Amino acid sequence: LSEEALKAFFETRKDQPDDGPGTGYQVPERWTVEYLLADVDLIAQEFPVDPADIEAFYTAHLADWKNPETQKVQSLDEVRQQIVKDLNREKVVNRIDDLILAALDAPAAEPFADMAKRLSLQTGRTTVSRGDRPVIEALGQVDGLFEALELLEPGERMSHALDCGKGRCLLRLAEREAAHASAFEEVRARVLADLRAGKAKALAASTLRPLKSQAGPNAFEAACEGLRRDPALTGKGSAVFEGLTYGATGPFQNPDVASDAKVPEEIANHSRAVQDFFVLKEGGDLTEPAFSEDGSEGILLQLQERLQPEPGAFLKERGPLAERYRDRV
């Protein structure tokens, strides 16, 4: 691939949002923020709880400590911290409110580091990007994060109090960076990978389509082998053809019809092709070429055999009541 081809491809996507591989190369809007955190677990430690009260609470609420997956009751040590928080909830909440109000009343110019030291809060600095989940590693999920950042200007007032995974927090905007196109040099490796992937996908699709003319499992397998070994394909996406494989599954049911049906693991990542597969009628029929959601695999499914249920099996499975409706079924 020439440098000119890479740059031309980059130009078509440089202003499109970056939603992962194969999408655009725009750098999203970013905010550099400082935060003050009133950590609920740390504040709970300010209020000692009598061990006897912890044990009594644990015993009185045993059903609450059952693991829903294993149905095993968690030990007292495993839930001790949660019990302390429950017993001290009102005290902790009031303490957090007092600390947040004290921070909001502080002089606007007071550094967060000084405020954190004075009020025994946690502080830090991080970068948040538009399009990310509303999560800051040190805070957990922050409710209303992006809405709060939209209202702030660099160096000015702090945000209103926000609930977060670790407790409650305040934010101050240090810097705002508008969304903009990436420099080509910064994303050249991605452009090359995306362009190669696009060409490989197109090549794989064009390779799979001729296989639709094949009939029977042996012919289908032979066609795959022929494509892999075709000298004319050397240098034209050979990795695609080296990765071309043939396989067969055992019988399976349509999960849209049978609730307990399971699609074989080797094709489970190709939901679109599987949906198309169930409308095929005769042995030897093939689906249209389809790709996995991440675009990493192309697939063509061929119906080898459609097994019909034994006469009356439907009724037998559903018991005597179904016998009354034999004619209608």
Care to describe what's here?
There is one protein chain. This protein has helices at about 5-15, 40-45, 50-60, 75-85, 90-105, 110-120, 145-150, 185-210, 215-230, 240, 270-275, 315-320, 320-325; strands spanning about 25, 30-40, 120-130, 135, 140, 160-165, 165-175, 180, 290, 300. By secondary structure, the chain is an alpha+beta fold. A four-stranded antiparallel beta sheet has the order 3-2-7-6. Helix 1 (about 5-15) crosses helix 8 and helix 3 (about 50-60) crosses helix 4. It is flat. The protein starts with a helix and ends in a 6-residue tail after the last helix. The relative contact order is 0.11. Mean pLDDT is about 75; it is low at about 235-240 and about 310-329.
Name its key features.
13 helices; flat; 39% helix; 4-stranded antiparallel beta sheet; alpha+beta; two-stranded antiparallel ribbon; 329 residues; disordered C terminus
What's the helix and strand layout?
Blueprint: H1 3-13, E1 26-27, E2 30-39, H2 40-44, H3 51-60, H4 76-87, H5 89-104, H6 112-119, E3 122-129, E4 135-136, E5 140-141, H7 145-150, E6 162-164, E7 167-177, E8 180-181, H8 184-208, H9 217-229, H10 238-242, H11 271-277, E9 290-291, E10 298-299, H12 313-318, H13 320-323
Antiparallel strand pairs: 1-8, 2-3, 2-7, 4-5, 6-7, 9-10
Helix pairs in contact: 1-8, 3-4
